């Protein structure tokens, strides 16, 4: 077994081993402090292992690990955020008596999330997907408030739904494959020729869209992110949603292309990105606004992948991963920043607010930030038609949303007494912040095929600046309008769904009544007789 | 002529069965069921199955009858009727039952011809067992495993019945004596048992070669014991009494022991060594008869109601 | 090809032991009195487990079915016992569950009265052993009437377990169970009579060769299958199961739900696959699948509605049994692929085993909860995970298997069934499996959420519960999960004794 | 007609009818005791079917096939045991119900161990 | 000789059967339990006696004949007891309705 393979395996297994270690009460008590180290093997793997490297573990593990370019990009960014957020959590939750439990959920989610970027076979992909999905529940309900439990319940229902869609999709993918656990690559290669192609793709998109939070399956995000503790929100919004992205990257046939489904994905993405902005602007809590921003950004990612699928362009996966890693780092830093802001007052507040503004506007495409890089890198693929226009508008929308966010955090932090955040929280935040600024620069040439110098051209700068200005102006204008904040409740349409609850309850009550009747002796007896006649008749006369 | 008799018997059986079902009074229905059991015995005679006829009359009619009558006496007045059915529902059930009967009748009439039978095989193998009654041979040789398990079934039913006793008196004695014992009953209980025991032993003894056998004999013995207990001549024993336990487990235990010996000294589990088959079978039957008698009597007697005498 | 006549194979005597040894123990307890009940039972549990494992080892080593001709009287006159791969799996599963439940009960009874000898306790040991014997007899039985006796033995052992605590409602549940099961077994017996009348034999192996499409066989199959359905409590014949399984004491519920309902299902499987001619099997399979699907959906919703934990688990049993019935059309097989070569067959068998383990774990966990808190109302158990972490974990892990979440035996089973549904073109069955998984997720999650909640007034155990008690449930739950990690081994095992289909080529 | 109505067939048909009657009683009768009686009628019908089968299978010097007859004997004993258990349960149930209705715990009230 | 015995058998058995018939008629027609009891015990005991008497000449062996007599005696015994018990039940039922 090569060192590279060992490293890949360690990236997956190390967090799991730590989680298993938590079975020991003594280790568990100190588990919070290992969170920072858990993702380090993954980080090392992302940096050190050459791309395109496979590691295959023979029976009985039946595990295939693959590190390709999109996987490496996502893995690196995610591992960094996990590590930093872990350090943040270790500092912010020292007094929490339930912290050991939190650490266990954390390690499990982490193992699942990071493993997803690595794993190359169908069964283990599903396994890790499930692990990441379900363990995140523990992070969401950690605060044990009523809101957290409600968010947790809705999250689990949707996660299970996603699991179901995904399971059937994977089964349809692998059903005709001779190997019980085929590599993802080969089933995806077979997909275009499969008779169940369209159904499979539809289910895959449904399943992963739920995880990504595409409209109308986004409802769990704005509920779960504010409810979770700050470091957990950071990874939920930064990494866990990327499970859907990596899923689409891995399972859609970008080589062969599927124009119709590409178009559908594009449509879904555009709707989502607009919807996220519009609803986000009506929100009044910072974390909720960030959650809607994530929804909107995931819409943009969907558009990218949709274009790739439509035009049969495998490069789209690299670009999408690039965009995603930008979002991972920036969104993670923003969430952590909310925690920092809450602990900051007086002199330092201005500096922190400034950094937050840079981060926030980066999402809109502030020149020289990762946002601008991501937008520029993806521009050529989108072309110059209506799609590019729509994306520009979306960037404007993002900026508007972020301005709204900044206004909120400034207001929230205004009254803070003079204090400075603990270094254990401040340092990780700075690391993520710095990474969000640096990493995209270093990756840019590899991903876009252009030089870094091209980024500094005035026209390039202008290309990203004007939508921002547009957005900012619009937002400043909108902010003047008499607007009822909180008009749309968090989780928007889930409230509509809850209006249907009496209907569901009524149906359930009906079923209860039917059951009572069926369980009456004469009715069951009649059922027995009827079944015997039915079966006997069928056997006698039909066969 | 015989066909006419058979037809009359069948008609009577059906009429009684319907009577049992539609009769309002619980006791009348049970008495009709008793009569039904006796007639059924006749039907078995007509079907050339004297062994079954004896069993049916003894256990199916007699044993079940006394069980039901005793239950009826206890439940009278307090049995709460539950889950009645509408007329339409009853009609639907009636139609369904008729359909099942019709289908069954069709199946019975469509049996393969010539009838498949194991009679020749059973007759051929009879020599190896030394028995004269093929039914006994089936029960204790060819299909002895069924019989063994069925003994356990009876024992389990008994344990189940006993488990319904209240906790404190669990290993005590059941109560079968009525509050006032009528004189004639006592008289009968003094006179009849000697005859009954003779008859029972006789039934068991001939069972190897002629109609009769463990169940029939066991039932007769059980009836005698019950009679004695009901008349109050001898109280029912504590359920934990060693002698009773010995009687109950003795039969199955001997059966098992011989079965295991068969796997050492003969061709396998439940096989009998050449030449010893008949004596072994008779020994098993003897022990089983006692076990069956004890089990049936205690099944009718019901769970313990008195604290054990310590 | 397997010869169509029984002949005692080496190791066949193990089958006799599997059936008879618990019976010997029953007699021994009966004879020696209540005080020695637990001791004798424990010894027998160990020996029985060893026998089951020996049978499995012998099966795998020889690669052929084990047979034993009882008393050297060959069928059709005599009775044969036979264990193929599936039977072997059932025997081992039964032994595992029974032994674990036995250990649990030993600890639990030890909590209340060290000396032992009470009514409930003695009855429990006697019935547990008798039940084991009956189950083994069902799994290795080869003669229809012998199977009838085994089924009755099973019922008679199960009914007293239901009303062990002697409350009016449990006695009522037991009576209802007994009567309905009795009707079921009588219908089965009737079918047996018809088959004898038509073919002159009751031996399954012989019948598989003789059976043709004939009115008598059709009627017999219909009656037997429906009778067994009544005993298996498939929707809409589930009237007796929820009160009976919820009312029984925890160890009893565990064996009832995990094992007892499996016996009739196993027999239906044998009837449909071995006795029914192909066309009849197809028709019966369709009907059974419809009922199974209805069972999954309907009873999962009912499980969601229950306020009491044990009732919820009981309804879940009815729902999970449904999965075993949707196997029939999926495992129909074809000319070149016999039913037992299909993945649906493997999936069904795996579901059977993993449900047994998971359900027993759940009931034991529920038993620990009831022991600790004195009730099992889900709403009033908020935060029980803090007091009983191991039980909560056991419940959660077992729940994973029920929901079909990887890695667990339930997941592999449902995955195989789904694959079969997709390949065979049964989208409605695939949808049912998924919906059932979702609903199962709902009801399992409801309990997990309760366990993890931190209510204003935390629940406090009424009395401390020793760890040993919790470990039994956890062990079973872990076994259910681990089953998912060795999914392909049973695949090979299940082929043994099934027409000697080549085992090569399987992963 | 006469040929097809050999004693075997005749009692077989009678058994079939009894099965229907027994089932009807079990399903429709509100009283539990009568349901138990119904089970016994159902059982009697089934045994008659066995008897009919046995009667048809006479040969080799026997008037009837002994195997089904032996099965019936086993069946009758099992059915009796079932009736005994059912009756015991029914009596116990009614006893407990009476205890409840009287407002006091039945004298035989017991507490479950498990 | 055998012809005479045959005739004796026919006459006695027929008489017994007639008595049975009468008893059954009484059972069906009489208004209350006690009179039904009267009819059935009187007629049936006598009827059975006549039938057994009539069958005795046909018995193949002495043991066969003894068996027949035993049957009759046992039936007498049980019928007498049953009648007593029934009568008591009716009597007590009347006293405490």
Please, could you describe this protein's structure?
- Chain B: Belongs to the CPA3 antiporters (TC 2.A.63) subunit B family.
- Chain B: Pfam families: MbhD, MnhB.
- Chain B: This is Multisubunit Na+/H+ antiporter, MnhB subunit.
- Chain B: It is found in: Cell membrane.
- Chain B: The chain crosses the membrane at residues 27-45, 52-71, 91-109, 121-142, 148-166, 187-208, 243-265, 280-301.
- The complex is a heteropentamer of chains A (543), B (310), C (507), D (114) and E (97).
- Chain A is mainly alpha-helical and 543 residues long.
- Chain A has 2 domains: 3-478 and 493-497, no CATH class; 500-542, no CATH class.
- Chain A is built from 23 helices and 2 strands.
- Chain A has helices at 3-21, 25-29, 40-48, 69-92, 99-118, 122-140, 146-174, 184-190, 197-212, 220-227, 230-240, 242-251, 259-281, 286-310, 315-342, 347-364, 370-382, 386-414, 423-448, 458-480, 493-499, 501-518, 521-542, and strands spanning 53-57, 63-67.
- In chain A, strands 1-2 form a two-stranded antiparallel ribbon.
- In chain A, helix 4 (69-92) packs antiparallel against helix 5 and helix 5 packs antiparallel against helix 6 (122-140).
- The radius of gyration of chain A is 24 Å and the shape is globular.
- The mean pLDDT of chain A is 86.
- Chain B has 310 residues and is mainly α.
- By secondary structure, chain D is mostly helical.
- Chain D has one domain (7-100): Helix Hairpins (Orthogonal Bundle).
- Chain D has 3 helices and no strands.
- Chain D has helices spanning 7-28, 32-56, 66-101.
- Mean pLDDT of chain D is 83; it is low at 104-114.
- Chain E is mainly alpha-helical.
- In chain E, helix 1 packs antiparallel against helix 2 (33-55).
- Classes of the chains: A mainly alpha (543), B mainly alpha (310), C mainly alpha (507), D mainly alpha (114), E mainly alpha (97).
- The interface between B and D is large, with 101 and 87 residues.
Indicate the topology.
The complex is a heteropentamer of chains A (543), B (310), C (507), D (114) and E (97).
Chain A: H1 3-21, H2 25-29, H3 40-48, E1 53-57, E2 63-67, H4 69-92, H5 99-118, H6 122-140, H7 146-174, H8 184-190, H9 197-212, H10 220-227, H11 230-240, H12 242-251, H13 259-281, H14 286-310, H15 315-342, H16 347-364, H17 370-382, H18 386-414, H19 423-448, H20 458-480, H21 493-499, H22 501-518, H23 521-542
Antiparallel strand pairs in A: 1-2
Helix pairs in contact in A: 1-3, 1-5, 3-4, 4-5, 4-11, 4-15, 4-19, 5-6, 6-7, 6-11, 7-9, 7-10, 9-12, 10-11, 10-14, 11-15, 12-15, 13-14, 13-18, 14-15, 14-18, 15-16, 15-17, 15-19, 16-18, 17-19, 18-20
Chain C: H1 13-32, H2 37-62, E1 66-69, E2 80-83, H3 85-112, H4 119-140, H5 144-162, H6 168-199, H7 204-210, H8 215-232, H9 241-247, H10 250-260, H11 262-275, H12 278-305, H13 309-325, H14 327-330, H15 343-373, H16 384-387, H17 389-403, H18 409-424, H19 427-452, H20 467-482, H21 488-495
Antiparallel strand pairs in C: 1-2
Helix pairs in contact in C: 1-2, 1-4, 2-3, 2-4, 3-4, 3-10, 3-15, 3-20, 3-21, 4-5, 4-10, 5-6, 5-10, 6-8, 6-9, 7-11, 8-11, 9-10, 9-13, 10-15, 12-13, 12-19, 13-15, 13-19, 15-17, 15-18, 15-20, 17-19, 17-20, 18-19
Chain D: H1 7-28, H2 32-56, H3 66-101
């Amino acid at each position: 077994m090569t060192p590279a393979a060992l490293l890949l395996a360690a990236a997956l297994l190390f967090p799991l081993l730590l989680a298993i270690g938590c079975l020991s009460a003594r280790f568990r008590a100190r588990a919070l402090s290992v969170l920072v180290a858990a993702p380090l093997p993954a980080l090392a793997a992302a940096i050190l292992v050459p791309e395109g490297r496979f590691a295959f573990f023979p029976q009985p593990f039946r595990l295939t690990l693959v590190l390709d370019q999109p996987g490496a990009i996502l893995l690196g960014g995610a591992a960094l955020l996990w590590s930093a957020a872990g350090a943040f959590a270790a500092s912010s939750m020292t007094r929490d008596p339930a912290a050991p439990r939190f650490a266990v959920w954390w390690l499990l989610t982490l193992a699942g999330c990071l493993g997803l970027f690595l794993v190359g076979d169908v069964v283990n992909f599903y396994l890790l997907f499930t692990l990441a999905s379900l363990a995140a529940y523990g992070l969401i309900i950690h605060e044990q408030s009523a809101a957290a439990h409600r968010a947790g319940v809705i999250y689990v229902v949707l996660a299970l739904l996603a699991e179901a869609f995904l399971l059937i999709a994977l089964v349809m993918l692998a059903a005709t494959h001779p190997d019980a656990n085929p590599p993802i690559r080969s089933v995806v290669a077979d997909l275009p020729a499969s008779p169940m192609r369209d159904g499979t793709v539809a289910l895959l998109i449904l399943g992963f869209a739920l995880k990504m939070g595409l409209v109308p399956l986004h409802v769990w995000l704005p509920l779960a992110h504010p409810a979770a503790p700050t470091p957990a929100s950071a990874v939920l919004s930064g990494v866990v949603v990327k499970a859907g992205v990596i899923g689409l990257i891995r399972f859609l046939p970008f080589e062969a292309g599927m124009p119709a489904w590409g178009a559908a994905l594009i449509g879904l993405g555009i709707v989502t990105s607009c919807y996220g902005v519009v609803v986000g602007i009506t929100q009044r809590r910072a974390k909720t606004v960030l959650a809607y921003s994530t929804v909107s950004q995931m819409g943009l990612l969907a558009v990218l992948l949709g274009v790739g699928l439509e035009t049969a362009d495998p490069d789209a996966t690299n670009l999408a991963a690039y965009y995603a890693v930008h979002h991972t780092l920036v969104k993670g830093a923003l969430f952590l920043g909310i925690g920092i802001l809450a602990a900051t007052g007086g002199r330092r507040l201005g500096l922190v607010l400034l950094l937050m503004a840079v981060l926030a506007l980066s999402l809109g495409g502030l020149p020289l930030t990762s946002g601008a890089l991501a937008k520029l890198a993806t521009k050529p693929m989108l072309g110059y038609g209506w799609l590019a226009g729509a994306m520009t508008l979306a960037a404007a929308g993002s900026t508007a949303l972020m301005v709204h966010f900044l206004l909120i955090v400034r207001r929230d932090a205004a009254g803070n007494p003079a204090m400075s955040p603990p270094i254990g929280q401040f340092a990780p935040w700075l690391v993520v912040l710095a990474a969000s600024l640096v990493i995209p620069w270093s990756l840019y040439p590899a991903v876009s095929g252009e030089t870094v110098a091209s980024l500094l051209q005035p026209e390039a700068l202008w290309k990203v600046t004007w939508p921002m200005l547009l957005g900012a102006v619009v937002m400043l204008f909108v902010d003047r309008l008499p607007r009822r904040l909180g008009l749309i409740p968090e989780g928007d349409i889930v409230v509509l769904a809850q209006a249907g609850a009496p209907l569901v309850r009524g149906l359930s009550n009906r079923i209860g009544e039917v059951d009572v009747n069926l369980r009456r002796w004469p009715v069951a007896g009649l059922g027995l007789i009827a079944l015997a006649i039915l079966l006997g008749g069928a056997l006698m006369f039909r066969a | 002529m015989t066909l006419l008799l058979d037809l009359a018997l069948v008609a009577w059986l059906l009429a009684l069965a319907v009577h049992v079902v539609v009769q309002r009074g619980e006791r009348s229905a049970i008495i009709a069921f008793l009569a039904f059991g006796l007639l059924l015995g006749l039907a078995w005679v007509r079907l050339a199955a004297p062994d079954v006829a004896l069993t049916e009359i003894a256990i199916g009619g007699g044993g079940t009858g006394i069980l039901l009558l005793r239950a009826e006496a206890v439940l009278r007045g307090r049995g709460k009727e539950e889950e009645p059915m509408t007329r339409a529902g009853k009609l639907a059930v009636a139609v369904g039952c008729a359909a099942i009967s019709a289908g069954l009748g069709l199946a019975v009439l469509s049996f393969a011809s010539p009838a498949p039978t194991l009679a020749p095989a059973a007759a051929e193998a009879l020599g190896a067992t030394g028995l004269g009654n093929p039914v006994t041979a089936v029960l204790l040789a060819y299909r002895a495993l069924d019989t063994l398990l069925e003994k356990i079934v009876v024992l389990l039913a008994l344990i189940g019945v006993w488990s319904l006793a209240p906790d404190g008196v669990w290993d005590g004695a059941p109560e079968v004596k009525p509050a006032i014992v009528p004189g004639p009953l006592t008289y009968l209980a003094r006179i009849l048992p000697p005859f009954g025991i003779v008859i029972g032993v006789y039934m068991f003894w001939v069972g190897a070669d002629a109609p009769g056998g463990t169940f029939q004999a066991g039932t007769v013995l059980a009836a005698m014991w019950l009679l004695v207990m009901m008349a109050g001549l001898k109280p029912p024993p504590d359920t934990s009494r060693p002698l009773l336990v010995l009687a109950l487990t003795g039969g199955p235990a001997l059966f098992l022991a011989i079965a295991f010996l068969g796997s050492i000294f003969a061709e396998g589990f439940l096989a009998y060594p050449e030449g010893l088959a008949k004596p072994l079978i008779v020994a098993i039957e003897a022990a089983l008869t006692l076990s069956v008698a004890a089990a049936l009597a205690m099944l009718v007697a019901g769970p313990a109601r008195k604290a054990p005498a310590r | 090809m397997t010869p169509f006549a029984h002949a005692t194979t080496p190791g066949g005597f193990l089958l006799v032991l599997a059936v008879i040894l618990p019976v010997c123990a029953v007699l021994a307890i009966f004879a020696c009195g209540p005080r020695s009940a637990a001791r004798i039972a424990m010894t027998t549990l160990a020996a029985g487990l060893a026998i089951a494992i020996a049978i499995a080892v012998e099966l795998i080593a020889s690669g052929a079915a084990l047979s034993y001709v009882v008393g050297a009287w060959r069928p059709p006159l005599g009775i044969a016992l036979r264990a193929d791969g599936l039977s072997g799996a059932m025997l081992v599963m039964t032994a595992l569950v029974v032994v674990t439940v036995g250990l649990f009960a030993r600890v639990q009874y030890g909590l209340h009265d060290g000396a032992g000898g009470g009514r409930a306790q003695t009855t429990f040991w006697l019935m547990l052993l008798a039940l084991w014997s009956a189950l083994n007899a069902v799994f290795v039985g080869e003669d229809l009437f012998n199977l009838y006796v085994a089924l009755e033995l099973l019922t008679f052992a199960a009914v007293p377990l239901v009303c062990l605590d002697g409350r009016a409602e449990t006695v009522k549940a037991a009576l209802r169970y007994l009567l309905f099961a009795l009707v079921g077994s009588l219908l089965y017996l009737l079918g047996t009579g018809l088959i004898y009348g038509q073919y002159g034999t009751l031996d399954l192996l012989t019948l598989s060769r003789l059976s043709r499409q004939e009115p008598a066989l059709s009627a017999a199959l219909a009656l037997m299958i429906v009778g067994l359905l009544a005993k298996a409590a498939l929707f809409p014949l589930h009237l007796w199961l929820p009160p009976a399984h919820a009312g029984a004491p925890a160890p009893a519920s565990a064996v009832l739900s995990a094992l007892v309902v499996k016996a009739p299902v196993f027999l239906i499987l044998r009837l449909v696959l071995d006795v029914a001619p192909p066309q009849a099997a197809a028709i019966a399979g369709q009907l059974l699948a419809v009922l199974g699907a209805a069972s999954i959906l309907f009873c999962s919703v009912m499980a969601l509605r229950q306020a009491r934990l044990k009732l919820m688990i009981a309804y879940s049993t009815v729902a999970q049994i449904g999965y075993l019935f949707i196997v029939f059309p999926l495992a129909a097989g074809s000319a070149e692929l016999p039913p037992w070569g299909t993945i649906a067959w493997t999936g069904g068998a795996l579901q059977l085993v993993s449900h047994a383990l998971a359900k027993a774990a759940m009931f034991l966990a529920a038993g620990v909860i009831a022991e600790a808190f004195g009730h099992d109302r889900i709403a009033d158990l908020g935060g029980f995970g803090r007091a009983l972490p191991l039980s909560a974990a056991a419940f959660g892990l077992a729940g994973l298997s029920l929901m079909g979440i990887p890695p667990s035996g339930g997941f592999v089973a449902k995955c195989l069934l789904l694959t079969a549904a997709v390949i065979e073109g049964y989208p409605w069955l695939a949808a049912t499996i998924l919906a059932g998984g979702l609903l199962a997720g709902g009801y399992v999650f409801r309990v997990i959420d309760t366990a993890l909640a931190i209510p204003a007034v935390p629940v406090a155990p009424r009395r401390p519960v020793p760890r040993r008690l919790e470990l039994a449930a956890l062990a079973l739950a872990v076994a259910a999960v681990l089953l998912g990690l060795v999914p392909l081994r049973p695949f090979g095992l299940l082929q043994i004794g099934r027409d000697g289909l080549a085992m090569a080529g399987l992963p | 007609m006469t040929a097809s109505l050999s004693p075997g067939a005749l009692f077989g048909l009678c058994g079939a009818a009894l099965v229907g009657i027994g089932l009807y009683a079990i399903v429709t009768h509100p009283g539990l005791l009568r349901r138990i009686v119904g089970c016994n009628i159902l059982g009697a019908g089934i045994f008659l079917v066995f008897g009919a089968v046995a009667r048809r299978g006479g040969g080799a010097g026997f008037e009837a096939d002994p195997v089904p007859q032996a099965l019936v004997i086993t069946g009758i004993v099992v059915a009796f045991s079932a009736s005994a258990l059912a009756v015991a349960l029914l009596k116990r149930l009614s006893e407990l119900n009476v205890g409840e209705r009287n407002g006091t715990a039945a004298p035989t009230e017991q507490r479950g161990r498990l | 000789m055998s012809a005479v015995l045959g005739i004796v058998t026919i006459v006695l058995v027929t008489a017994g059967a007639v008595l049975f018939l009468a008893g059954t008629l009484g059972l069906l027609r009489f208004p209350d339990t006690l009179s039904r009891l009267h009819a059935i015990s009187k007629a049936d005991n006598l009827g059975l006696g006549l039938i057994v008497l009539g069958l005795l000449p046909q018995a193949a062996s002495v043991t066969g004949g003894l068996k027949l007599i035993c049957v009759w005696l046992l039936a007498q015994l049980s019928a007498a007891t049953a009648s007593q018990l029934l009568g008591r039940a009716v009597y007590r039922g009347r006293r405490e309705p």
